Amino acid sequence: MPWKLDLGANCEKSNVSFRIWSPYYDSLSIVLYKQNKKEIVEMNKEDKGYFSLKDKDVEYYSYLIENMEIPDPASRYQPEGVHGKSKVLCENFNWEDKEWEGIDQNNLIIYELHVGTFSERGDFQGVIEKLDYLKNLGITAIELMPVSQFGGKRNWGYDGVFLYAVQNSYGGPYELKRLVNEAHKKGLGVILDVVYNHVGPEGNYLGKFGPYFSSRYTTPWGPIFNYDEAWSDEVRHYVTQNALYWIYEYHMDGLRLDAVHSIYDISPKHILSEISDKIKIAESELKRKINLIAESDLNDPKIISPKEKCGYNIDAQWSDDFHHALHAYATGERDSYYEDFGSIEQIVKALEKVFIYDGVYSNFRKKTHGAPVGDLGGNKFIVYIQNHDQIGNRKDGKRLLNLIDKQNFLILSTLYFMSPYIPMIFMGEEYGEKNPFLFFTDFSDVQLINALREGRKKELGEYYYDPQSDDTYNKSKLSWKIDYEILNFYKNIIKIKKELDHSRNILVKIEDNSLLIERDKLLVVAAFKDSTIHLKKKWKLILSTAEFPEYIEGEIKIGRGAAIYRNAN
Amino acid sequence: MPWKLDLGANCEKSNVSFRIWSPYYDSLSIVLYKQNKKEIVEMNKEDKGYFSLKDKDVEYYSYLIENMEIPDPASRYQPEGVHGKSKVLCENFNWEDKEWEGIDQNNLIIYELHVGTFSERGDFQGVIEKLDYLKNLGITAIELMPVSQFGGKRNWGYDGVFLYAVQNSYGGPYELKRLVNEAHKKGLGVILDVVYNHVGPEGNYLGKFGPYFSSRYTTPWGPIFNYDEAWSDEVRHYVTQNALYWIYEYHMDGLRLDAVHSIYDISPKHILSEISDKIKIAESELKRKINLIAESDLNDPKIISPKEKCGYNIDAQWSDDFHHALHAYATGERDSYYEDFGSIEQIVKALEKVFIYDGVYSNFRKKTHGAPVGDLGGNKFIVYIQNHDQIGNRKDGKRLLNLIDKQNFLILSTLYFMSPYIPMIFMGEEYGEKNPFLFFTDFSDVQLINALREGRKKELGEYYYDPQSDDTYNKSKLSWKIDYEILNFYKNIIKIKKELDHSRNILVKIEDNSLLIERDKLLVVAAFKDSTIHLKKKWKLILSTAEFPEYIEGEIKIGRGAAIYRNAN
């Protein structure tokens, strides 16, 4: 394997090689824990703020900064959590996926899951136990919410502080590798959610070592990585190597880049472009497809456009507009960002043009937002009717099935699966889970906890619950009470989805209270109310959410529900 | 004229139409000063935070905010300064430049000047009086340091707070129009330095009216305009209209955009791209060339690349690397950013490739900096051996002639004029001015003054002088003690420059202690010490800074100095 990590603790035969970037200091000592022995050793200084050392038989280590033992920013494992020692990992994992070729972008059907709440046991083994179920459902890749070490045992993952360390409470590095290995053996891909904009509030020791964070850009939820100021070469290295690390060392099939709209970089080459360049090289070296997916709130096609069209060349991005259009129309909600949505015409635009705000004034944002996607293919966009944010960021944390009835829910499911885009299910959605997905944390810093509680009390008002409590976490776990009508519908529509391409050459129209989508010799009818529709061709039913005639042609009255027909001429 | 300003006070026949963007308020009152009469009138509310009103016979006005009279953010004139009332201007200026076609980018030879210190009287009239001198010198365009109203009577101009108001102490709007009109009559262009990144510290009332400033980006020298957050459409409008205003209402031949590296914008269309689009439209409407020039510290060719190459399509940009390479080599200075410069090879690179830091690690910046300019033409870059920053930001404020001797000074002059780029002279340079250009202010806010003085005491140490004192200002004024040897040399080299194109197809080599540049059938010899050079062709002298042989060929010994030869074969 040509790529090797040059940060953290790396084993080479009988040696362990340590390397850290710590430009704030002229000298640096490492604390080495060997069997029943603790040694403090001065590191060798290299150029540009790096220090390195080789030693033997080290089990744990930390760095001595201002007389405190601080874990390694590139620690591979923090068995005792964010404040504990870093562990040296030398065991080789016995990969069994030599033949694995990855998941082609056109075949992606994504299943987003949160390791802690997906199963009762809340760890990687809990996911492994469900791989057969997921394979049987028909999805082709799971997308893990972030697993980089965060403070405490419970967290969505976006408060991670050790980019390279796999969350101890999920089972750590070995268990994550086992999950990927088992998934690959079953033909399932694994995409990892990684956070390259900010780091979390507890256990963030990065700033002790060097200028990891920007001095000129700020976010409300934590410091932002420094991608364009002094020392940014090394910060960029820390981040781009992390992306490669998950691909090479963990055999990930893709990365979901969190909130790229909060990554600021005025360098000639944007960090996203640099990440995508490096991933493309890895892809060709490894001869397997790596899917690079951005969460972007910008509605800017630059993120996913090829280089020759001035883009960052990311493979695909989430499209919140699609979600919001469906959600606002079906629920009638108009608060917060749903203010900008609600008409059936917007669903048509979402199906046809992806972005609804593509250079259009947004009342919610109080500005003109976005730009048209042009001729970018349907496979460049990930769509969903639920995800961790769209459920979890609601005051009530409610899933869609608690807001609309099953019939409307299935109409929305039909629409997003039958869109030209890549569908993403949020765990439990496929069988009608009704448990909420709440915001939960497990911090230990009292000041931080108090600030968090006060902030959320203000924000949530009567909906307030304690983010720190076990109860909040447990309530968010999947119940696995399966509604087989929904589950079977999902299995069937996934089968149909797999037959389709991602051509955006589709015909969408509104007739009476229905949306009609014609594509790939299929007709999709989504009737939000009883409707009368008119058809020029004859169509044969292949799937429906309610009673629908087996053949339709000419003027037809239909009841509420969605159906997929095949050309019967 | 198709373009009309829709902000501020605009006269239409006998009416004055007022329009202001003030989204912080649901209602807004204007204070109207008519002859011996003061009226307070409620404005009419429009969409998106705008208010408007029509009235008659108004001489001055202000807006009532929290019971205080605040001047108009789009005021055309602040006769009493930044804290005073805004003036309604209804007089038509009698333009005499109907036939004026602007200055083609290829013909630009720029003369940067500061209105306050250029002449003893320190106003626009003082510049008008020197137009014949400037024409006779041979430059084709003057570039005025910013004239937007700043606090007090003395300022470099970068503390401007009313983008549309012409500095009262310089003579105000009428006098600026007169200067442009007179310049055009003599065939000289006028470029205006405009500041679209930040506003100054005194008299900045913009934030009282609306979110003019970014909540997420910061600079050390003032708030940054909000180009991409809520309400940014209107801030962008305020700024882009300002650019057009100088072109349409003041007949400017170009704009120099201050510090574009401090303009942050993650919108799909960058504000610089929007400005350049709008200026191109103005250019074709007005049928005269408008030169859009950026001051950029980014060494990023994106700024000046055409759209099809993913650029912002700005016409040209300053190149500090060129300056630093020459300055550091000639002076031997290595402090601050000169740390990155000093070798003769860097001068060669500057002549050949423009940017020295074009993807190369900078020790001073502690990061890899810049990107190569590729095949962008020489006319995309402005070069200089002095400018207001490179003199004024020195602790000693010293001009180059106080740092090196006349011979070395003229060698540098030769190099920058004979480069493929557009030359820019800083006022006085052409006749050997030795007065410093110091940093001076005339604020009235005591806290601000104290902070400024303390800050500069710390920064300057033994070099400290009081930025607020009249003396500092007067010391910075041009003495007009003309060294005719230098002046004549400048006149002659400008004549030669005018014969050349901006092709970057030049040959540069180092021989002994000399730089040899072959271009356009000319040979430029710049000998920093006695040198022996070898020539394959025969050359005839056309201009030199010292005694040089009239013909040279084969092996030749030359003394220190620079000379320009023409092919004599």
Automatic annotation (TrEMBL), chains A, B:
Keyword Hydrolase (UniProt): yes
Active site: D258, E295
Stretches assigned to the Glycosyl hydrolase family 13 catalytic domain: 112-456
Leading EC class: hydrolase
Domain of life: Archaea
Gene Ontology terms for molecular function: 4-alpha-D-(1->4)-alpha-D-glucanotrehalose trehalohydrolase activity
One biological process term in Gene Ontology: trehalose biosynthetic process
EC code(s) of this entry: 3.2.1.141
Keywords: Carbohydrate metabolism, Cytoplasm, Glycosidase, Hydrolase
InterPro entries xref list: GH, GH13_cat_dom, Glyco_hydro_b, Ig-like_fold, Ig_E-set, Maltooligo_trehalose_arc_C, Trehalose_TreZ, Trehalose_TreZ_E-set_sf
Protein residues bound to substrate: 256-261, 320-324, 388-393
Localization annotation: Cytoplasm
Pfam families reported for this sequence: Alpha-amyl_C, Alpha-amylase
Keyword Cytoplasm attributed: yes
SMART domains for the chain: Aamy
A single cellular component GO annotation: cytoplasm
Reaction(s) catalysed by this chain's protein: hydrolysis of (1->4)-alpha-D-glucosidic linkage in 4-alpha-D-[(1->4)-alpha-D-glucanosyl]n trehalose to yield trehalose and (1->4)-alpha-D-glucan
Pathway the protein acts in: Glycan biosynthesis; trehalose biosynthesis
Residues under site feature: Transition state stabilizer: D389
Matches recorded under NCBIfam families: trehalose_TreZ
Assigned protein family: Belongs to the glycosyl hydrolase 13 family.
PANTHER family noted in UniProt: 1,4-ALPHA-GLUCAN-BRANCHING ENZYME, MALTO-OLIGOSYLTREHALOSE TREHALOHYDROLASE
Protein name as annotated: Malto-oligosyltrehalose trehalohydrolase
Lineage: Archaea, Thermoproteota, Thermoprotei, Sulfolobales, Sulfolobaceae
Gene this protein is translated from: treZ
